[in-house]
Structure formats: structure tokens, C-alpha cells
Amino acid sequence: MQLGLVGLGKMGGNMxxxxxxxxxxVVGYDRNPEVSDVASLREMVEKLAAPRAxxxxxxxxxxxxxxxxxxxxxxAEGDIVIDGGNSRFTDDEANAAHLxxxxxxxxxxxxxxxxxxLQNGYALMVGGAEADVARLMPIFEALKPEGEYGFVHAxxxxxxxxxxxxxxxxxxxxxxxxxxxxxxxxxxEHVTNVPEVFKSWKEGTVxxxxxxxxxxxxxxxxxxxxxxxxxxxxxxxxxxTVEEAIRLGVPLHVITASLFARFASRQDDSPAMKAVAAxxxxxxxxxxxxx
Length: 291
What we know:
The protein is elongated and about 75 Å long. The chain has a 7-stranded mixed beta sheet with strand order 2-1-3-4-5-6-7, with helices on both faces. The chain is built from 13 helices and 7 strands. β4 (80-83), α4 and β5 (105-112) form a beta-alpha-beta unit. The protein has 2 domains: 2-156, NAD(P)-binding Rossmann-like Domain (Rossmann fold, 3-Layer(aba) Sandwich); 165-272, N-(1-d-carboxylethyl)-l-norvaline Dehydrogenase, domain 2. It is α/β, with parallel strands linked by helices. It has helices spanning 10-21, 41-46, 62-74, 89-99, 117-120, 130-135, 137-143, 159-187, 194-200, 210-221, 237-248, 253-265, 271-284; strands at residues 2-6, 25-29, 53-56, 80-83, 105-112, 123-127, 151-155. Helix content is 50%, strand content 12%. This is 6-phosphogluconate dehydrogenase. Belongs to the 6-phosphogluconate dehydrogenase family. InterPro entries: 6-PGluconate_DH-like_C_sf, 6DGDH_YqeC, 6PGD_dom2, 6PGDH_C, 6PGDH_NADP-bd, 6PGdom_BS, NAD(P)-bd_dom_sf, Pgluconate_DH. One of its GO terms (biological process) is D-gluconate metabolic process. It is an enzyme of class 1 (oxidoreductase).
């Protein structure tokens, strides 16, 4: 099958390679001419035979919206646009509505796999019309991991990114549970080989996972994680997950706490904890540490 691919960064570039290895023809466009197959979006579209399929792998928000709008001027009835970035699900509805008057289909694909996807495949969570998804199945089959799992048609337009949003919210919670366990083990006077404890959990335990394997890799490289600052960013999907929980009245204790922990990691000196220390000093005369 033939596919246009916009955005050839860490994931997009590897996706192009995985598809080509599976025998598909990929015409890739990127603003970086060193990795791009063509000089412009227009040239990419012109190299594709109708009906066309174009996959977008650019940052969420304005870059994706701008790309969809530009493709809307270049594509024709029967073509399909796939957004495989980390867009918010509400953006999918707007993008689909923008393309609909021209008869251009729209599919959203939540993609998980990161830098390991070229080797292991990408987990795909897809939203869109049944006919559009069915037409794209050769591409999805080539990108997904081998075997029964790793792909789902989650529902209508927006469902793919919604599922990926929840996936990433769960990821926040899992990562933080491992992280808290690591800190407790490091603080204990009883445990003298923390990396080997985590390594022992890789087989036969209920907490084994790919995330655990990745933490073991990190501890092999730096057993005390001394070369890493305790600062964690968030991509936005954790926030969207919590916002949806508030909208729907669903209690998300663990995911919300893990998101707030990331916020706390960015504070060198917490204003809230300064207030707590001041209050303890005021009502109980407890000592405070001064700068």
C-alpha cells in the first residue's frame, strides 16, 4: 500500500522504516530536508495515487491543526488523513469536521511504542469510520506488533486518542508506583542491592512489566540514578485524563496523585511547604529551617 507520512522525527522516521520493511511504499515529508523524501507537502501529495492516505506525526495542537488545514487544500474526495500524534480527542472532532465538506476521511490513531517501535511494533488505538479503518488495515497490520494484540478500533473519530490518553494516564500511575518503591528501598537500612531487587522481579511476580524492564535498564546504567535530576515533565495527556475524570465524575486517585507528583518535582523550594512550616511554627513553636 502507498502512504504519505508527514513528520519524520524519532517515531515518524522509524514508522517509515518499519512500513518499508513490510513492503509498503512511503513518501515522507519533513521540514528537515536531510530526512525528507520530498520538498513540500504538495510534492508529497502529487506523488501519491488516488485515493490517497496521509499519516501525520507532528506535535499536537497548532502544528497538527495547521497540517490538517494545508492537506485539506491539497487532498480530494476519497482521500484519508490519519493523525497519529498525541492530539487531544476534541481536536479530532474539529479536524474531521474541517475535512468532511471535501469528502476527505479522518482517522485518529493513538500510537504507543516510542523509540522501540521499529523493532517491537507500535500499539495502535484507532478511531474513525469502519470503512476508513478497514481500508487502512494493511498499514495498521504492518505497524502493530506481531501476534493477536496491539491494535484496536476503539470507536468513532476521537476514540483512538481518547484511549491513548487513558493509556498514558495509567502509565503515569504505574511509573510512579515503581518510583515510590525505588525510593523506599533506597531509604531502607535493610536492603543493600536495590538494582538486583528490581531485576529479581522481572520473572514470576505480578509486578513484572515492560516498564519494570526499562527501570532495570536505567539502574544497570546508573544504580543510584545520580546522573539524573528529579524533574519530570508531562506531555499533557495526564492532565487531559484528570480533566475527563472531573467532567465525568470518575475518581482517579492514583493517576491524579502521580500527575501532581510531577508538578512537585519542578519546585526547588515548595511555596506550599513553606506555608506548612510557617503554620507549624506559629501554632506549635516548631523550628523552621531558614535560607
